[in-house]
Specification:
mainly beta; Pnp Oxidase, Chain A; seven-stranded antiparallel sheet; three-stranded antiparallel sheet; 14 strands; EC 1.5.1.-; oxidoreductase; oxidoreductase activity; Flavin_Rdtase-like_dom; Split_barrel_FMN-bd
Length: about 190
């Protein structure tokens, strides 16, 4: 099968998000004049090391509006045990509703930015906005510099952040998710002589 996205796929459901998977989930928390907000984004990833940078992309509702106003956001990493409550925060609440309170998510304060974070998340990245790009359609890409990192102590094993301790949730296509439970170490080959 081949199809051009502009022409449609003719299937009952779009295969695009199933093809580009698994995708890590950023549980983005923000604060602005309308209050605190918490929403998951599966179009998310790291985009650089020095300084560390991340991006997420989505529609311009509360999260992007808050980021435009405040210039900061936090990325909370979603563990397997938090999948249901993370999903509850994806509901389309009216602007100004605090999803932390609505879904019963414990809240803590960030240390480098004026923003809430998910208390007890395996990791949280405190970010300052570098750029917001308006993409074709109704999507916006937010790029941020990571200025602070919280790591949950039980996830540190022998000086390494061990993802199998919390099993990060990842988005597949449709309504499907998966979890990282197995890790394979594979070192890069040495340079040829």
């Amino acid at each position: 099968m081949f199809y051009r996205p502009a022409d449609g796929h003719g299937l009952p459901h779009s295969p695009f998000s199933a093809i580009v998977s698994p995708r890590p989930i950023a549980w983005i928390s923000t604060r602005a004049s309308q209050g605190d907000n918490l929403a998951p984004y599966s179009f998310f990833n790291a985009v650089g090391y020095t300084p560390p940078k991340v991006m997420f992309s989505g529609d311009p509702r509360d999260t992007v509006a808050n980021v435009r106003e405040s210039g900061v956001f936090a990325v909370n990493i979603v563990e397997a045990a938090a999948l249901e409550v993370m999903n509850a925060t994806s509901a389309r609440f009216p602007r100004g509703i605090d999803e932390f309170l609505a879904a019963g998510v414990p809240k803590a304060e960030c240390l480098q930015i004026d923003c809430p974070r998910v208390d007890g998340a395996p990791a949280t990245l405190e970010c300052r906005v570098i750029r917001i790009l308006d993409l074709p359609g109704d999507d916006h890409m937010v790029i941020g510099e990571v200025v602070g990192i919280h790591l949950r102590d039980d996830c540190l094993v022998d000086g390494r952040f061990d993802v199998t301790r919390y099993q990060p949730a990842a988005r597949l296509g449709y309504h499907d998710y998966t979890f990282v439970r197995d890790v394979v170490e594979l070192r890069r080959p040495k340079e040829p002589r």
